[in-house]
From TrEMBL, chain A:
GO biological processes: carbohydrate metabolic process; fatty acid biosynthetic process; malonyl-CoA biosynthetic process
Gene3D superfamilies reported for this sequence: 2-enoyl-CoA Hydratase, Chain A, domain 1
Any Pfam family the entry gives: Carboxyl_trans
Record's keyword annotation contains Transferase: yes
NCBIfam families: malonate_beta, PRK07189.1
InterPro entries cross-referenced by the UniProt entry: AcCoA_carboxyl_beta, ClpP/crotonase-like_dom_sf, COA_CT_N, Malonate_beta
Protein name: Biotin-independent malonate decarboxylase subunit beta
Molecular functions per Gene Ontology: acetyl-CoA carboxylase activity; carboxy-lyase activity; transferase activity
Keywords: Transferase
Automatic annotation (TrEMBL), chain B:
Transmembrane segments: none
Pfam families, sorted: MdcE
Official protein name in the record: Biotin-independent malonate decarboxylase subunit gamma
Underlying gene: mdcE
InterPro entries: ClpP/crotonase-like_dom_sf, Malonate_gamma
GO terms of biological process kind: carbohydrate metabolic process
Length: 283, 268
């Protein structure tokens, strides 16, 4: 048994250790990867240099077309290592534009599906309102594309998925997480700033993972799959979900169910992981 | 000058919806009523302060768990009610939202998913042929604005210092970007997307209309007439336009958003 485990561990290829480009390549069928607006297109943030910040030639977003399980696909990967994966005007427009074109493909009879690799703190505050506007357009495009083909989001870590992009994650047909992942609207520092240390201690990592970590989100039914940090496992999970097709009802449409459960919560006491799992049992 | 104390959203809701009956079955922090505008059926929606909100971090008009899912319900009910009706009622989101709710309960119970519920409903309504208008009468901040207003076919704002669109409050934004509030304000003065004032926001091309009013916090009869007139014009404009958000592109201060889309299309 131990030997088998060791063999399995040796065969694993870590997904989280890959950068955005490597992740997109790893998920597309071998030999099918084609990047759009690659770094040589030099579409960079027009706003960062004005603030003394060095821009990046892909603005931290990789858009790649190719095949997944033999079907046309676009993989959109956010680079968590550039500016915390934050979305500015250019990176945001790359994501929204790619999703809009995928929806257009479907209207014209090409069943392009999309995978979003979400490694992001949300809006890039140096481009604040243009990041926010782009995220609204990304959300609009997800809802549009989702009518035709599943849109699958994956939060692998280590950055996690926060801000307006966590709302975008909540719109996906399916959402996958690893143990490294965190998913939440407000970053810990912002909550501490706005609500105080007693409400949220941004330095207490076990506390933060217990509420917003991948395992907890899966146990509470707020995501669809909990995957190992392994390229083959993630690929096979994606293939399975695409084969399954669109969900009967997306999680973001279940207001009646969530409102019923939230109304039963005792809000006089502070929340913990167990209370959430119990409230959302059967999600 | 906090909009929470001013209750701008509530005042504009009362002015626009008049004596129309509140839709039942919704959280107390929502005001939702049906009416008629320019001869068309409309549903007005507002998020208001509720001192008795069961979630303590959502008592000042913030968009929290109940508000996100409640908006989803209110919009979804309109979609369902008009499913077989060729004339879909318009949805007027009256926007006066200081922020999303920041708290432990909110994160634990998945406020991101609640806000996704609201975004989902507004976006589906737009795609189903409901005209959706975001009427910005107060603060229009971050995730709260994404959930309530930002999926609209058209955004209309009052020209007033209390109307403000941004991704994060100043103090938190300064901490996250490792700057002082003074430094942040200096940068905001020269970088339009970082600014907190409406004129800079308008320069990004996201607004369909900016309206001058006498009393943004408590509308006069003339203010109401002017806003109703603008809403009527927007409804006519929406009826003759695509259901997507392309009308937001084109401003010089947002040129890269168009360039990226053109280049993507060329390589697609």
């Amino acid at each position: 048994m131990a030997e088998q485990n060791i063999a399995r561990l040796l065969a694993q290829r870590s997904f989280t250790e890959l950068g955005a480009r490597g992740r997109a390549r790893a998920l597309l069928d071998a030999g099918s990867f084609r990047e759009l607006l690659d770094p040589f297109a030099r579409l960079m943030s027009p706003w960062l240099p004005k603030q003394g910040i060095v821009p990046q030639a892909d603005d931290g977003v990789v858009v790649a077309k190719g095949l997944i399980d033999g079907q046309p696909a676009v993989v959109i990967a956010i680079e968590g290592a550039f500016q915390g994966g934050s979305l500015g005007e250019v990176g945001g427009a790359k994501i929204a534009g790619a999703l809009e074109l995928a929806a257009e493909d479907n209207r014209n009879g090409t069943p392009t599906r999309a995978v979003l690799l979400l490694e992001t703190g949300g809006v890039r505050l140096q481009e604040a309102n243009l990041g926010l506007a782009a995220i609204a357009e990304i959300q609009a495009a997800i809802v549009e594309l989702r009518q035709y083909q599943p849109v699958i989001g994956l939060v692998a870590g280590p950055v996690g998925c926060f801000g307006g992009m966590s709302i975008a994650a909540g719109l996906c047909s399916y959402l996958l997480v690893t143990r490294e992942a965190r998913l939440g609207l407000n970053g810990p520092q912002v909550i501490e700033q706005e609500a105080g240390l007693d409400e949220y201690d941004s330095r207490d990592r076990p506390f933060i993972w217990s509420l917003t970590g991948g395992e907890q989100r899966h146990a509470s039914g707020l995501v669809d799959g909990y995957v190992a940090d392994d390229v083959d496992a993630i690929r096979s999970e994606l293939h399975g979900l695409f084969a399954k097709g669109k969900p009967t009802q997306e999680r973001s449409r279940r207001h009646a169910w969530f409102l019923q459960r939230l109304r039963a919560v005792d809000t006089a006491v502070q929340a913990d992981a167990a209370a959430v799992r119990s409230a959302y049992q059967g999600a | 000058m906090t909009t929470a104390q001013e209750q701008r959203g509530l005042h504009w809701f009362q002015a626009l919806a008049g004596a129309a009956q509140q839709q039942p079955g919704l959280p107390a922090s929502l005001r939702v009523a049906d009416g008629e505008l320019a001869g068309q059926a409309v549903r007005y929606l507002a998020v208001i302060a509720d001192a008795n909100n069961p979630f303590p971090r959502a008592r000042n008009g913030e968009v929290g768990l109940l508000e996100g899912w409640g908006l989803a319900q209110a919009v979804d009910e309109a979609i369902e009610a008009d499913r077989d009706n060729p004339h879909k009622r318009a949805l007027i989101a009256i926007v006066d939202v200081p922020s999303q709710a920041y708290g432990r309960r909110e994160e634990a119970y998945g406020i991101h998913q609640a806000l996704a519920g609201a975004v989902d409903a507004y976006a589906r309504a737009r795609l189903a042929g409901h005209a959706v208008i975001g009427l910005l009468v107060g603060k229009s901040m971050s995730g709260a604005f994404l959930a309530h207003g930002y999926q609209a076919n058209r955004l209309i704002a009052l020209r007033d210092a209390g109307v403000m669109v941004h991704a994060m409050g100043k103090a938190a934004a300064a901490r996250i970007t490792l700057r002082s509030v003074d430094e942040l304000e200096a940068l905001a003065a020269s970088v339009p997307p970082m600014a907190y004032d409406l004129d800079n926001y308008a320069s990004l091309g996201l607004l369909a209309d900016v309206l001058d009013v006498e009393q943004a916090a408590q509308p006069t009869a003339a203010d109401l007439a002017r806003v109703q007139d603008a809403l009527g014009r927007a409804l006519a404009d929406i009826a003759a336009s695509p259901r997507d958000l392309r009308n937001r592109l084109g401003a010089a201060n947002r040129a890269a958003s168009s360039q990226v889309r053109e280049a993507l299309r060329a390589q697609w």
